[in-house]
Amino acid sequence: MGQTRTDTLERTERPAYTLVLSDTDNDLEAVQYVLWLVGLCDRRGRWRRGARPLHVVHTGDWLNKFNPNLEVLEFFQRLQSSAPEGCSVVLLVGNHEVEILQRVAAGIRTRLSKAHLEFIRKQDVIHVADNILYLHGYPTINLLSLLFQIKQEEQALNLFNQRFRKAFYGGRYPLFKEREGLEMIGDIRHVNQYYMRTGVDGERYGVRVSRLLHRLGIDTVIHGHRPNMLIQLDHELGDEIPGIRIVNNDNKASITGFGAAVVDTRGMVRFINPKAMQVLGGEKAFRKQIGRVLGMQ
Predict the structure, then answer these.
(1) What burial letters (b/e) apply to 128-156, b meaning 16+ CB within 10 Å?
(2) Which residues have C-beta within 8 Å of that of residue 201, sequence separation ≥ 6?
(3) Which terminus of the chain has fewer CB atoms gathered within 10 Å of its CB, N or C?
(4) In whole angstroms, what is the distance from residue 33 CA to residue 54 CA?
(5) What is the secondary structure of 227-251 as a DSSP string?
(6) Using one digit for the tens of pLDDT, what is the confidence trace for 58-77?
(7) Rounded to 10 degrees, what is the CA torsion of 43, 49, 50, 54?
(8) What is the pLDDT of residue 296?
């Protein structure tokens, strides 16, 4: 049997840095600008010859759920399939991508072809690397319990994606049509209330989530889904989920023009947003600093 894309990534040496995009919501210009800003691509989003190894992880909502842009979807297809050696593009499904599939299943017409829809279904739900869990929304007890089961089987945690796709999209009762299925990608309606809830054993959900994450070897969660006030939010939910660093990478990129984060293998996070660029004195200075950090200069 052939290796899956995730298997291949885990068996090779990972680059020192990961570029994290979130909730770009059909905004192709914002994505291409960030890829150029860090020195990975030219202004049209084509891989730069000789670019240093770097992973790109998009934590979901790369499309608009009501009006998915074909150009955006096909751009990510090309970016993923043409990644040079040492680079990779991991696209996670967010509630926008799931809701697109829900609308199609309900008989609502779409501009997306069957091949486009299949591309969405092939993307991952979570990504785990360097003690960091990347997902669209917030970690739930159900999600972490399934991941812990895989860990007990002494399997790589990213195997979850392969198994989950079968249950999520296949079978007689696919999960993506249900509210509980959306919770598996972290789409929680009342986040603080969820983690402050108390289980039958008297333990708060947030405490249990923290304990499960530590048992999985995860100390940092990076997500999008819940927009902030134009900048990213670090150490979110410190009281609700003790001992776990939660990074919200959703800075409303489609409104601000761009936004992302650069993460190294130690968990050091550097945010990319208009405010950070302004602090450093503008685009040229910011691009130079990021390029120096990533070794792109």
Answers:
(1) bbbebbbbbbbbbbebbebbeebbeeeee
(2) none
(3) N
(4) 16
(5) --SSS-BSSTTTTTSTT-EEEE---
(6) 999 999 999 999 999 999 99
(7) 50
(8) 73
What pLDDT, on the 0 to 100 scale, is given for residue 4? 41
H helices of 15-174, where? 28-37, 70-81, 95-105, 114-122, 141-152, 159-169
Q: What is the pLDDT of residue 8?
A: 38
Q: Which amino acid is at 267?
A: G
Rounded CA-CA distance 22/131 in Å is 19
Q: Which domains are seen in the chain, by residue range?
A: 5-294 (3.60.21.10)
* Residue 90 binned pLDDT confidence (cut-offs 50, 70, 90): very high
Q: Which residues make beta-bridge pairs with 52? A: none
Sheet holding 220-223, edge to edge: 126-129, 132-135, 220-223, 245-248
Task: Report CA-CA distances (Å) from 238 to 147, 195, 241.
Answer: 22, 11, 6
Q: Give the pLDDT score at 266.
A: 87
Residues 6+ apart with CB under 8 A from 227: 23, 250, 251, 252
First to last CA, the chain: 40
SS3 (DSSP) at 186: coil
The structure's pTM equals 0.93
Band (pLDDT 50/70/90 cuts) for residue 182 is confident
Q: Give the number of other CB atoms < 10 A from CB of residue 109.
A: 7
- Tell whether the model's pLDDT for residue 9 goes beyond 60: no
Burial of 101 (0-12, 13-18, 19+ CB in 10 A): buried
Q: What is the pLDDT of residues 228-261, one digit of tens each?
A: 988 999 999 999 999 999 999 999 999 999 999 9
Non-local CB neighbours of 242 within 8 Å, separated by 6+ positions = 206, 207, 210
Residues 6+ apart with CB under 8 A from 45: 28, 31, 32, 35, 36, 75, 79
